[in-house]
Design goal:
alpha/beta; single chain; 15% strand; 689 residues; 28 helices
């Protein structure tokens, strides 16, 4: 997709979002960019708000989004420069600097406490300013973002960092061109480019470990602890691969053992610590090949706790040389950029094998995602009134997959694609988590942001997948679509309600749906919500929408109640205490809503039937895989299995059938054992097919 097509598609998405949420187009743009930032690992959980005003000495102030919750204790703020135009406008250096000056001015007055003087205490920007003031010197770094739907002038260079009260302030410029580059990148994020000579002028000594693969090269290095700490200080959790970031966010800041070693035996750190494992897609070396001078897309895939601990130990002490004698062992795997999207998650998975990662983990090519994609491609939606054809819902495993698939087609085929998969019937991975976790009665997790919620969903679905992956079946997908319809229609209705004032829409909707789910369990035992009715209608029955709106109004009142425990509504919504307040509030389900519920036994029968069908489909898929694999490929597996001792006599006997040593065809059960042997072999490093 070229830049013009990207601009048009993004503008259409933003316009649709503004219409649905009854919001300004500029704020809809900021919300859309915030979601893309989260997916790209740039800023995990931007909360959008709108403030333009005056400060001390009549200075212009502005802020349009914030994130106070990064694992590295940094604070991110964004200011918007939005042109309501169909053309792609050029943003001048002067305009860009004016907007960033307004944002920095807001930050300065908020931190000093000046901003709140004489302002409305109930406003979101007042709550943000109070939070910034309370954090004081506990903040590690401020990251200020300029976000624009224009194209930055080529004359705009990198803006030098500044500081507030001794805390570094970095400036980040994001225009449409940069957003487009991220969407088009194979990794779905912007690659970090790190010049190591800033820390090690002569380059970092490295030792290449010879191997036969053309897909990657492996190096060993002893990295100065100060370099690791500084990298984390500058780039924060962007430096950490997705799973490592999620793991670290729930842990304490400093490992006590690491801290003790640094202070008492720093020279022994190299011997005591397991070190870090990292990947990169590019490496620049000195002419003799013995030193690394630059890295592209550095990602720490194991050792996040070590990385963060070094940073915090350096930061909390007054001795600037505390890490002078500390060196960290590092294994660096430099992968082919075209293979990175598959290899990096696998390297992360096996590097963290002590923390077992399920097969249903949330890489885009995981079995869970593939199953959902297959179901989406197969299941036809009941025809809508007035249409003589049926459509399908599109499950997007990776950002931009839907548009990329459409744009590869000729005009006639592209029109057929749009007719089959309408733009309004696209579900993304993070959407799935949002819909499912809301109904699972954990709205505080949904409110914590797309990535944290994604982790919560991953943990819950992994248990389902491992105990019975047949549960992820046609009925599961239909229910998922029904939850999507419910969430989006409730969101539209709330946005247009006379009691709703702009702000906190996502929090209100997730709490409303969680409360509805909870009250069905409490007030209608033996009954279950009728998701099939929504699937068949492809819309919400009136009784359901009216009840959900009443639940939303209750959630809104509790979220914004003056008596709430946390002043900032967005932060309040992330807490278990907030959900407890909504959970225990009185809410009666009306009779016309209850009449639409279905008996639990009928529901159980439908689920069991769908499980049985999926079990048969799984068996057929396994047999297809077996019979589509050549004898030569099975021969390679047989040799590997014997050499690595991963197969018993029975398994070798089955391999003898598919390699032609014995006559006959493998049975259904034998096919399943073959695939299990193949899985074991791959875990041991088998990669021939």
């Amino acid at each position: 997709m070229n830049l013009d097509d990207f601009h048009l598609d993004l503008q259409n998405t933003v316009n649709a979002r503004a219409a649905v949420e009854n919001d300004y187009t500029s704020m809809a743009f900021m919300a859309e960019v915030s979601e893309r930032f989260a997916e790209a690992g740039e800023v995990e959980n931007f909360t959008v708000l709108q403030f333009e005003g005056k400060g001390q000495r009549n200075k212009k102030l502005a802020v349009h989004a914030y994130d106070l919750d990064d694992a590295d204790e940094s604070v991110s703020l964004a200011v918007l420069l939005y042109a309501n135009s169909d053309s792609l406008d050029v943003v001048t250096a002067t305009d860009a600097k004016k907007r960033l000056t307004a944002l920095e001015g807001f930050l300065s007055e908020a931190v000093s406490g000046q901003f709140t003087v004489g302002r409305e205490e109930s406003s979101a920007v007042y709550q943000l300013a109070v939070d910034l003031n309370h954090r004081g010197r506990a903040v590690s770094r401020y990251r200020l973002y300029l976000v624009t739907n224009g194209r930055l002038s080529d004359r705009i260079k990198e803006i030098p960092s500044s500081s507030i009260n001794g805390i570094p302030v970095d400036f980040h410029l994001w225009d449409l061109q940069r957003l487009h580059q991220v969407q088009e990148s194979q990794q779905g994020r912007e690659a970090l480019e790190i010049n190591l000579t800033k820390w090690v002028p002569e380059g970092l000594p490295i030792l290449e470990i010879n191997g036969d693969s053309t897909d990657f090269a492996t190096y060993m290095a002893a990295v100065p602890g100060a370099l690791v700490a500084d990298l984390y200080g500058q780039y924060g959790s962007r430096l950490l691969e997705g799973n490592v970031r999620s793991f670290l966010s729930g842990r304490g800041k400093v490992n006590k053992g690491i801290k003790a070693t640094i202070h008492s035996e720093p020279e022994m750190f190299m011997a005591y610590n397991n070190g870090i494992t990292a990947t990169a897609t590019g490496l620049t070396r000195t002419e003799d090949g013995l030193r690394a001078t630059a890295l592209v897309d550095l990602q720490i895939v194991n050792g996040g706790q070590t990385t963060a601990s070094l940073f915090y130990v350096a930061r909390e002490g007054t001795d600037q040389t505390v890490l002078r004698d500390v060196y960290v062992p590092m294994k660096l795997v430099v992968v082919d950029p075209t293979k990175a999207v598959d290899l990096v998650p696998k390297i992360s998975r096996f590097a963290n094998s002590q923390n077992r990662v399920s097969e249903a983990d949330f890489f885009s090519n995981s079995p869970f995602h593939i199953r959902l994609e297959e179901l989406a491609r197969r299941l036809l939606v009941p025809a809508r009134p007035g249409l003589n054809y049926q459509t399908k819902w599109y499950y997007e495993r990776t950002r931009g997959q839907y548009l990329n698939e459409k744009n590869k087609l000729a005009t006639a085929d592209a029109n057929k694609f749009l007719a089959t998969f309408p733009r309004g019937q696209v579900i993304t991975k993070t959407d799935v988590a949002k819909y499912a976790v809301s109904w699972a009665q954990k709205p505080h997790l949904v409110s914590a942001g797309a990535q944290k919620n994604f982790v919560a969903f991953a943990e819950s679905i992994a248990k389902v997948w491992e105990s019975s992956n047949e549960a992820i079946n046609e009925q599961y997908f239909r229910d998922l679509v029904a939850k999507a319809i419910m969430y989006e229609e409730v969101r539209k209705a709330v946005a247009k309600s006379d009691w709703y004032d702009k702000g906190y829409l996502a929090n209100i909707v997730t709490y409303a749906i969680a409360k509805l789910s909870l009250e069905i369990d409490k007030q209608a035992p033996g009954n279950h919500f009728n998701f099939s009715a929504i699937w068949n209608l492809q819309t919400l029955p009136d009784a359901v929408l009216e009840t959900a709106l009443a639940s939303a109004k209750l959630a809104f009142e509790i979220l914004t109640a003056p008596s709430r425990r946390v002043a900032n509504v967005t932060e309040w919504a992330k807490s278990q205490a907030c959900w407890e307040a909504v959970r225990t509030a009185t809410f009666e389900l009306p009779d016309n809503f209850k009449r639409g519920l279905v008996d639990t036994s009928d529901r159980a029968e439908a689920l069991n039937n769908s499980k049985t069908t999926q079990r048969i489909d799984n068996s057929i898929d396994i047999q297809k895989q077996v019979f589509s694999t050549s004898k030569e490929q099975w021969e390679g597996l047989r040799e590997f299995a014997l050499r690595s001792r991963i197969a018993g006599p029975t398994d070798i006997g089955i391999l003898d059938i598919v390699t032609g040593r014995k006559t006959g065809f493998p049975s259904e059960r034998q096919c399943a054992r073959l695939i299990a042997t193949l899985t074991k072999a791959r875990e041991k490093g088998f990669a021939q097919f």
